[in-house]
């Protein structure tokens, strides 16, 4: 039996191996396709990216044809390099450099030699393509922007880098991928699915037809279209209002969390990042470290919220029952909170909740905050309770929008102050600046717009999002999930009345629009810059938050204008115009419109540039003088 068993095992194993080899080589030909067989050429069919529309069906982003010259280094044979270079307008050095780069990627696989030829360049090359073995053209689709605004929303597409190729098997050298904005966030939806064709070549490397009659070919699938929540006309108007200014505008529909406008200024024409000049244009935008046109201020810029934060201070005071509507505090143009410590205020007399809001009384809200923090047995417990209330409005945390970027902001808690005061000794008056949004609190424009949406809804909000609909698909459920704040619904009515009175008789009364009840709050935030170890005081930031109409609100908005002095000078008029534009579709306050469209803060920004330039020059001169002194001393020693 043993004599039979061993030969039987050997025979059985051999039969299994032979069967497997027969299957792989004769029946299953997929491995042939996976191998780099010289007789088979793999050609990709790139689909069109999905189109992008605004909420009203306006086409924002389409596609245009483009052509890449591809190269397979090992297939290059005796070409006329000079003719090739002259045809494409490149130098021989550039030719050699690109070939070497292609070889590093793979001598056997195709990679992009020269990207994004236009139709004229493509036609000229196609006529002589047969003379340049190893080179061929690959058709792709580039973005065709129908508008010259919204670049921060769209993002752009560019060639994949080595890391993206290594981490995602879908991409090959030369493929395009979404960078920034919705192009990045919704890349897998927009890009579609590549098709593949396998072509058979003869011994002269000429294509003689499809491999196996196209048995293994696949058809490309176009990317899905996106409908954005953005109102294109409102986005355009906001962009125009922010010309020659720096800052951000974020407008949200309170009932849904849909982002109506997301303006960042300064901005750029999205068409700059399409075509052969894309790289040069991107480099220029990237290295503008002062204006920062690639920096989305609406999502990333973190500012002290200033007086708009008083809205939350008041609501928390009501929720914690340390005040009611009739609680009053006497203001003598400020609030003393310690020996020699005085918080200035432009108001005077007795302030209650209503006039405290519309007159923006620092004294009133400092007292409310002090009472809130002093309510519990120790300030650590109080600050943590206060912090949780604030965070329930979406402040001090990533909101979870469907944009690939965002900043957290800052809402301090007890740990913040335990680090700052390791030996203790801090109390409500130590951190009193939080009451008016000038302490450690930092917010982004989108967070403040979301906060106003929560106030407009009397206690809840939906996560802000920028995609309304995906063709053939649905948006994430998290964008239709209600988030309820920790303040009782009943406390919002008196605060909203105060916000309405900001326009009726308060700090924004000069911005009032006939027969349109807007609820708003002016704000001013301190602004400093630190250059080479020295701090400079600059003009304050202008801030304004609002929603309208007061009943059944359709829009909530936050506007930040850097170096804009005070709230109703720049941010207030811009917010008012944006609200009227969206609700009425026309502007009645032509005086505000003319002033905002023609106004400029470039002189203020020039001061910042001068400070940076002069300070850096001074530092460099000091360094040179120091080095010269050292050299002289060395010469004396020698």
TrEMBL record:
Domain Penicillin-binding protein transpeptidase: 247-575
Keyword line: Carboxypeptidase, Cell inner membrane, Cell membrane, Cell shape, Cell wall biogenesis/degradation, Hydrolase, Membrane, Peptidoglycan synthesis, Protease, Transmembrane, Transmembrane helix
Record-linked InterPro entries: Beta-lactam/transpept, Beta-lactam/transpept-like, PBP_dimer, PBP_dimer_sf, PCN-bd_Tpept, Penicillin-binding_protein_2
Signal peptide boundaries: none
This protein's name: Penicillin-binding protein 2
Membrane-topology annotation of the record: Single-pass membrane protein
Native species: Flavobacterium okayamense
Gene3D superfamilies assigned: DD-peptidase/beta-lactamase superfamily (3.40.710.10), Penicillin-binding protein 2a (Domain 2) (3.90.1310.10), Penicillin-binding protein 2a, domain 3 (3.30.1390.30)
Domain Penicillin-binding protein dimerisation: 47-209
Gene: pbpA
Keyword Protease found: yes
Location in the cell: Cell membrane; Membrane
């Amino acid at each position: 039996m043993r004599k039979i068993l061993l030969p039987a095992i050997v025979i059985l194993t051999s039969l299994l191996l032979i069967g497997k080899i027969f299957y792989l080589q004769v029946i299953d030909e997929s491995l042939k396709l996976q191998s780099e067989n010289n007789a088979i050429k793999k050609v990709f069919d790139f689909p069109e990216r999905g189109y992008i529309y605004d909420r009203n069906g306006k086409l924002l982003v389409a596609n245009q044809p483009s052509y890449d010259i591809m190269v397979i280094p090992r297939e290059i044979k005796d070409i006329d390099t000079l003719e090739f270079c002259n045809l494409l307008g490149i130098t021989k050095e550039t030719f050699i450099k690109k070939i070497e780069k292609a070889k590093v990627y793979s001598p056997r696989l195709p990679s992009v030699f020269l990207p994004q030829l236009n139709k004229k360049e493509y036609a000229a090359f196609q006529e002589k393509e047969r003379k340049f073995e190893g080179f061929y053209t690959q058709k792709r689709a580039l973005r065709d922007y129908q508008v010259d605004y919204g670049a921060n929303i769209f993002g752009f597409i560019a060639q994949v880098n080595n890391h993206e190729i290594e981490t995602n098997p879908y991409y090959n050298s030369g493929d395009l991928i979404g960078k920034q904005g919705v192009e990045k966030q919704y890349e897998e939806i927009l890009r579609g699915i590549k098709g593949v064709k396998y072509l058979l070549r003869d011994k002269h490397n000429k294509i003689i037809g499809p491999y196996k009659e196209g048995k293994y070919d696949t058809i490309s699938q176009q990317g899905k279209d996106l409908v954005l929540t953005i109102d294109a006309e409102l986005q355009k108007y906001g962009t125009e209002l922010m010309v020659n200014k720096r800052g951000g505008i974020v407008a949200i529909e309170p009932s849904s969390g849909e982002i109506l406008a997301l303006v960042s200024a300064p901005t750029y024409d999205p068409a700059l990042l399409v075509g052969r000049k894309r790289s040069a244009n991107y480099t220029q935008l990237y290295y503008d470290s002062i204006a920062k046109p690639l920096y989305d201020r609406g999502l990333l810029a973190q500012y002290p919220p200033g007086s708009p934060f008083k809205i939350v201070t008041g609501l928390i005071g009501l929720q914690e029952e340390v005040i009611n509507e009739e609680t009053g505090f006497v203001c003598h143009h400020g609030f003393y909170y310690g020996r020699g410590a005085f918080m200035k205020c432009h108001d005077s007399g007795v302030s209650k909740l209503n006039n405290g809001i519309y007159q923006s009384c620092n004294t009133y809200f400092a007292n409310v905050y002090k009472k809130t923090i002093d309510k519990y047995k120790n300030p650590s417990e109080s600050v943590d309770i206060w912090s949780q209330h604030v965070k329930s409005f979406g402040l001090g945390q990533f909101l979870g929008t469907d944009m690939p970027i965002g900043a957290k902001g800052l809402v301090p808690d007890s740990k913040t102050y335990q680090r700052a005061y390791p030996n203790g000794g801090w109390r409500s008056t130590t951190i009193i600046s939080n009451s008016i949004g000038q302490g450690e609190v930092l917010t982004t424009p989108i967070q403040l717009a979301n906060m106003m949406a929560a106030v407009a809804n009397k206690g809840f909000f939906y996560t802000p999002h920028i995609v309304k609909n995906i063709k053939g698909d649905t948006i994430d459920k998290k964008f239709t999930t209600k988030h309820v704040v920790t303040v009782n619904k009943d406390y919002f009515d008196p605060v909203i009345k105060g916000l309405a009175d900001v326009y009726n008789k308060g700090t924004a009364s000069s911005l009032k629009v006939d027969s349109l009840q807007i609820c708003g709050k002016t704000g001013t935030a301190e602004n400093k810059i630190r250059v080479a170890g020295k701090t400079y005081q600059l003009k304050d930031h202008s801030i304004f938050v609002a929603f309208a109409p007061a009943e059944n609100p359709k829009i909530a908005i936050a506007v930040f204008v850097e170096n804009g002095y005070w709230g109703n000078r720049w941010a207030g008029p811009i917010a008012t115009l944006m609200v009227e534009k969206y609700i009425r579709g026309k502007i009645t306050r032509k005086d505000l419109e003319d002033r905002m469209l023609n106004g400029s803060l470039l002189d203020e920004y020039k001061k910042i540039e001068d400070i940076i330039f002069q300070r850096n020059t001074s530092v460099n001169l000091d360094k040179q003088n120091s080095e010269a002194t050292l050299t002289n001393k060395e010469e004396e020693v020698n």
